[in-house]
Amino acid sequence: MLAITDTAAEAIKSLTTDAELPEGGGLRIAAPSPEQGLELSLAGQPGTDDVVLSGDGVAVFLEPVAAQVLDDKVLDVQPVQGADGEQELRFAIGPQQTEPEA
């Protein structure tokens, strides 16, 4: 299942609050063309077949194909140098870290 870092959860919470989404709204991740990448958008409610991840006041809706693609991934936020030289924060998908066996 997709893991969400605390930093990403804070960013999602901020985005959904700023967008004044209704209660239960969240970030939706879809894979309309998986080979083209993923599509992130804000949604007032999940789609009919979406997998819903929620906790700590944050909701993420995963379209079924996206849920499959992201099953072993982690959603994070990373600073990126913007075109204007300013630092921007962007969502990033990475592999989940596995705990080394003792």
Automatic annotation (TrEMBL):
Name of the protein described by the UniProt record: Iron-sulfur cluster biosynthesis protein
Lineage of source species: Bacteria, Bacillati, Actinomycetota, Actinomycetes, Pseudonocardiales
